[in-house]
Amino acid sequence: MSHHNKELAKEQELLTTFIKNSNTPYEIAVFAGGCFWPMEEVFEKVDGVLRVESGYTGGHKKNPTYEEVGSQTTGHLESVEVLYNPHQLTYEDLLQVYWRSIDPTDAEGQFADRGSEYRTAVFYSSKEQKELAEASRDELAASKRFKQPIVTKIAAASTFYKAETEHQDYYKKNPLQHGLTELASGRDSFLNSAWGKDREVKLHAKIGFNQAFDKEEKLKTLTKHQFNVTQRDFEDPPFENEYWANEEEGIYVDIVSGEPLFSSQDQFDAGTGWPSFTKPLESNNIVLKPDPGLFSSSTQVRSRHADSFLGHVFDDGPKPTGLRYCINSSSMIFIPAAELDKSGYGEYAGQFAKEKLPSES
Fold it and tell me: Domain MsrB, which positions (predicted)?
């Protein structure tokens, strides 16, 4: 296995552990919308989506290759598997994103990509998904937005075969080539013409905390170092940051948005000089991303709503999760347990309520 594939496998393992130890009931949606490169980009930018993978599904060949699917002998369609948080957005939201990203009247492919492997389809994994997909398709047909009939198939999901490494996050790895290809495809001009001002989807996403924030204004209040850490991916110096040895009870929130991130109950001394945690307080508010450094193989931890750089996650932590979230103090504000109510985080106060001794009851 190549070094790059080993790092991808490590990243996948971290993500799997993150999901396993999360209280969030992540769900999966599968869509075929022509070439999977632009479709992956479309869904990865949706707030509430944790991961998007390119692959092949709908056909009969086991473990197909890109070349085999392209030969149109496998029955598979290029597709994307979307892992999302139903507490943040709905399956209907994803359907609306999907319809605004394809030509549902094209039975021979999508835009510049011609062939059966580029046909469109929604693959459902439950009765609810099937009913929602069919209702969404019928509503689109009734709107008369398109002059031609809707031909996108609604079909039961089958095995999803992950595409080769070079096809994952293609738009990130080859931004210039991808941009030029998309420009030449005519996709944007077609969708702008078809949807106009309605092309932008109004999602039903839940923000996950009650405090509104103005990011631009909040950034003005940060120190130069706090700005560099949260916005430019700098690191705090080890053993010389505010919370590395904090033993007080309470929670840590994002310094920009205020979204809850970690709890002192999950904090431990990793001996590294940075605050370390076994798991997030609210996994909804945490995003894991590959570190963009040229020679880096680590996984970044960022806040979902403020997109603050928080630190990194490693797989050398203690049980039960086996993870170590190594976080910069400068990215967070600590709210002591005694101040949670008045600070607007009263819902977490119960976690720190001390049990009364028998003599006190």
Answer: 215-337
